[in-house]
Design goal:
heterodimer; A: mainly beta; seven-stranded mixed sheet; 11 strands; 0% helix; 49% strand; globular; B: mainly beta
Chain lengths: 106, 124
């Protein structure tokens, strides 16, 4: 199975800060990497698919990059409503896996 | 509106069984693969299973093989997860999600619509 790791596990930042979250796969997954945002008590929401493609309706302050094993999610200017846990997920093969999540506090 | 609504969760004793349901609306259910994802209390998301449009292809996370069965009824626009031999570690919120795939030339796969989840608690 493909294992996904994320760093940091949590972070605290101020409104307006640039925030970067890293996701690493245990083997190359090309760019079959998705990012989800989960606010407390809510279902996950898709932010980024294919490593860098912004899902429709998602604010442009969110962006993704990477290919192979190393990926990043960037929030260019953190907003109060971005308080959430962010998880990466690989769809390279038929058995999907998520990263453990990064909790973002404001 | 595109919507997924899960039901069937509850408190069950270890060794027991449950059948979770997910009712889909607002889209052509039979056109899409579907997924189940779960989240144990205070833990991260865990993909559990995928099923193709016709119910023929099914994939499961290794930890649940043999105990969880994903199925669907396209006539009822419904997705199901049969959970048997329940263990404490199956305690979680179970989400159903629509698996979307982009078209040629790049076939990306992701979960673009999620339900609000149903809670399963395994305890004596």
């Amino acid at each position: 199975d493909i294992q996904m790791t994320q760093s940091p596990s949590s972070l605290s930042a101020s409104v307006g800060d640039r925030v970067t979250i890293t996701c690493r796969a245990s083997q190359s997954i090309s760019n079959y990497l998705n990012w989800y945002q989960q606010k407390p008590g809510k279902a996950p929401k898709l932010l980024i698919y294919g490593a860098s493609h912004l899902q429709s309706g998602v604010p442009s302050r969110f962006s993704g990059s990477g290919i192979g094993t190393d990926f990043t999610l960037t929030i260019s200017s953190l907003q109060p409503e971005d308080l959430a846990t962010y998880s990466c997920q690989q769809s390279f093969n038929t058995l999907w896996t998520f990263g453990p999540g990064t909790k973002v506090e404001i | 509106d595109v919507q997924l609504v899960e039901s069937g969760g509850g408190l069950v004793q270890p060794g027991g069984s449950l059948r979770l349901s997910c009712a889909a609306s607002g889209f052509t259910f039979s056109d899409f693969w579907m997924s189940w994802v779960r989240q144990a209390p205070g833990k991260g998301l865990e993909w559990v299973a995928n099923i193709d449009q016709n119910g023929y292809e099914k994939y499961y996370v290794d930890s649940v093989k043999g105990r969880l069965i994903i199925s669907r009824d396209n006539a009822k626009n419904s997705l199901y997860l049969q959970v048997d031999s329940l263990r404490a570690e199956d305690t979680a919120v179970y989400y159903c999600a629509r698996r979307y795939s982009t078209s040629s030339p790049y076939y990306y796969y992701y979960m673009d619509v999620w339900g609000s989840g149903t809670t399963v608690t395994v305890s004596s």
